[in-house]
TrEMBL record:
Lineage, highest ranks first: Eukaryota, Fungi, Dikarya, Ascomycota, Pezizomycotina
Protein name as it appears in the record: FAD dependent oxidoreductase domain-containing protein
Origin: domain of life: Eukaryota
Cofactor: FAD
GO molecular function: flavin adenine dinucleotide binding; sarcosine oxidase activity
The keyword Flavoprotein belongs to this UniProt entry's keyword annotation: yes
Alphabetized UniProt keyword annotations: FAD, Flavoprotein, Oxidoreductase
Coiled-coil regions, chain positions: none
Organism per entry: Fusarium piperis
């Protein structure tokens, strides 16, 4: 049986942020959502981030349609935080 440090119920904006930050701290996180998973959510596009919207939108569309991007996005996401401290 798998064990988790944090269970997040509801993976909307706040639940996703909670899961993300717990994972950054090194927690093993599981999330539960009543709606269909697999949707792509773009976060952190406030203020100066809007200038990146066209590129981010293109990458998100490629990921949603093809499951891969023509750009190298391997440096983005939780795995790059593998050395983060524990909760």
């Amino acid at each position: 049986m798998d064990r988790y440090d944090v269970a997040v119920v509801g993976l909307g904006a706040l639940g996703s942020a909670t899961a993300y930050h717990a994972a950054l701290k090194g927690a093993k996180v599981i999330g539960f959502e009543q709606f269909e998973l697999g949707n792509i959510s773009l976060q952190g596009l406030a203020a100066h981030g809007f200038k990146f919207a066209p590129a981010i939108g293109r990458v998100a569309a490629e990921l949603a349609i093809d499951g891969k991007s023509s750009d190298d996005v391997s440096k983005f996401g939780i795995p790059r935080q593998a050395g983060a401290s524990k909760l």
